[in-house]
């Protein structure tokens, strides 16, 4: 499996630190509003990376934070006259709803910055002890950038160029910095803002220290993959590396992955310019699976332009797969023959199946090449096309079911739900109900409950009556 590493600017063979395991940290959103479709891009692409790795049998520990203390959250809280936690809790809930609709798996852990302050105080203390940080007279703690010799290695920026005249790095109110490149680890509280007690001053953490600490706490000093949008390369990730490596004295992340930006009508999507859509906006017009499909139809590192036209194309593409699965379901229910055998044209269904399965290899090849989801989806299309020519009313149930399972499996690696809920076959439900009855008889209540819950997730409600188990669709 090859991954493009921003650190080396090359595609590298992926070799996890611990065989069979992957530790992955993805910078999550700042929660002061509904997430926009740009925020959804890293969620979708890195969820797909995770799904593919899990499909390959790797055990992925996936951590993605919510930044729940930030100027924008505080501003919004003041506007509404509520505590900042009311704002962040509200938008974390909303974000989770959007993630679910986009079929983004919940992370193994979703840490919140405000729950991790102790770890931040500890890391800042370590940086001070090791001479990588200093306290200004107002209590602000700054990271001493020039003390970290590898600074700039991720963004491939030359420190001297940066230092010479990069005015944009001078932030108002940070005039006690020894060097314009130094950045804030801890800042003093302001009136009406949330704060925590600290040895240097009551205050709150800088943004970069949050991720260094949450990554360390949940994944350890050295991790396999750190990811986020390309806007985070500098300064956020560069600063994270400086903090983590200076404090832990170990290499931080082995692979750095960054997604390209999502633009709207070929212009940079920006909240201030007002040309952005929330995931909710898009959900009013499209099934959000179409948005997921749209995001994966481009390579994750390429810039991606969002337009009505491209969404319509994505809708057509997605529906082509859905329709194929729906046809298969229809044929499966009608099938006269169960066992795989001769095909209508005299060939053997088994040889067709072999051919169909060759698309799995094509799909994998695309994914192994730095997660080329565009090509991976093309191989699903080819499989769909092949299926449409080979599946017929005279096909066996087994053949049709096998074809369907391959399409579902590849779609699922992309996180695409291509079988509609009301298409889940009655036979499958009956079989699961029977399995549940058997589990209960064997006193395996855990399995019985699991089946009931799984069915519930698919909208099937079970009712235990005196005459036996009845079911209905929710
Ligand atoms: P933020 O809430 O701004 O920290 O963003 C959360 C995540 O969304 C980060 O990984 C950003 O890089 C990413 N992101 C924000 N805007 C876009 C965009 N227009 N295209 C792609 N990724 C974005
Ligand atoms: Zn981060």
Descriptive account of the structure:
The structure is a single chain. By secondary structure, the chain is an alpha/beta fold. Helices cover 47% and strands 15% of the residues. It is built from 15 helices and 15 strands. It has helices at 37-55, 71-80, 84-101, 117-129, 159-163, 207-219, 233-248, 279-285, 288-296, 308-334, 349-368, 373-390, 397-413, 426-441, 445-457; strands spanning 2-5, 10-13, 21-26, 59-64, 133-135, 141-143, 183-188, 203-205, 223-229, 253-259, 262-264, 267-268, 304-306, 460-465, 468-473. The strands form 5 sheets. It has a 4-stranded parallel sheet with strand order 4-3-9-10, sandwiched between helices. α11 packs antiparallel against α12. The protein starts with a strand and ends with a strand. The model has no long low-confidence stretch (mean pLDDT 93). Bound molecules: adenosine monophosphate and zinc ion. The site of adenosine monophosphate (AMP) has 15 residues, from α1 and β9.
Brief account:
The chain contains 15 helices and 15 strands. The protein has 474 residues and is α/β, with parallel strands linked by helices.
Q: What are the main properties of this structure?
A:
474 residues; binds adenosine monophosphate; four-stranded antiparallel β-sheet; binds zinc ion; four-stranded parallel β-sheet; alpha/beta; 15 strands; 15 helices
């Amino acid at each position: 499996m090859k991954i493009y590493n921003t650190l080396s600017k090359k595609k590298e063979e992926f070799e996890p630190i611990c065989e069979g395991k992957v530790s992955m940290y993805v910078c999550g959103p700042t929660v002061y509003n509904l997430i926009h479709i740009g925020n959804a891009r890293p969620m979708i692409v890195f969820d797909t990376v995770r799904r593919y790795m899990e499909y390959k049998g790797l055990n992925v520990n996936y951590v993605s934070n919510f930044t729940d203390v930030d100027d924008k959250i505080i501003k919004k809280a003041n506007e509404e006259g509520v505590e900042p936690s009311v704002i962040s809790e509200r938008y974390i809930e909303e974000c989770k709803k959007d993630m679910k609709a986009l079929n983004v798996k919940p992370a193994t852990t979703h840490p919140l910055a405000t729950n991790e302050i102790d770890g931040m105080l500890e890391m800042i203390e370590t940086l001070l002890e090791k001479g990588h940080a200093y306290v200004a007279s107002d209590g602000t703690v700054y990271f001493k950038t020039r003390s970290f010799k590898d600074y700039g290695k991720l963004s491939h920026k030359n420190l001297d160029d940066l230092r010479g005249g990069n005015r944009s790095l001078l932030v108002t109110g940070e005039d006690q910095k020894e060097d314009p490149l130094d950045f804030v680890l801890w800042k003093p509280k302001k009136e009406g803002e949330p704060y925590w007690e600290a040895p240097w001053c009551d205050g709150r953490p800088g943004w970069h220290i949050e991720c260094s600490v949450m990554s360390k706490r949940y994944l350890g000093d050295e991790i396999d993959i750190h990811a986020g949008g390309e806007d985070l390369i500098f300064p956020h990730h560069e600063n994270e590396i400086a903090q983590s490596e200076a404090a832990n004295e170990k290499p931080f992340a082995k692979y750095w992955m960054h997604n390209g930006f999502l633009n709207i009508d070929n212009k940079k999507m920006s909240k201030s310019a007002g040309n952005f859509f929330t995931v909710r906006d898009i959900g009013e017009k499209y099934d959000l699976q179409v948005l997921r499909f749209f995001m994966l139809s481009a390579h994750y590192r390429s810039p991606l332009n969002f337009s009505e036209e491209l969404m319509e194309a994505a809708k057509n593409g997605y529906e082509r797969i859905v329709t194929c699965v729906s046809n298969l379901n229809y044929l499966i229910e009608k099938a006269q023959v169960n066992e795989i055998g001769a095909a209508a044209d005299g060939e053997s269904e088994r040889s067709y199946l072999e051919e169909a399965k060759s698309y799995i290899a094509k799909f994998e090849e695309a994914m192994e090449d730095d997660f080329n989801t565009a090509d991976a989806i093309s191989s699903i299309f080819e499989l769909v096309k092949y299926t449409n020519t080979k599946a017929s009313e005279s096909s066996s149930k087994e053949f049709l079911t096998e074809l369907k399972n391959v399409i579902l499996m590849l779609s699922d690696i992309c996180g695409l739900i291509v079988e509609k809920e009301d298409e889940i076959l009655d036979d499958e439900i009956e079989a699961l109900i029977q399995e549940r009855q058997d589990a209960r008889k064997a006193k395996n209540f855990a399995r019985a409950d699991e089946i009931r819950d799984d069915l519930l997730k698919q909208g099937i409600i079970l009712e235990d009556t005196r005459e036996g188990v009845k079911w209905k669709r929710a």
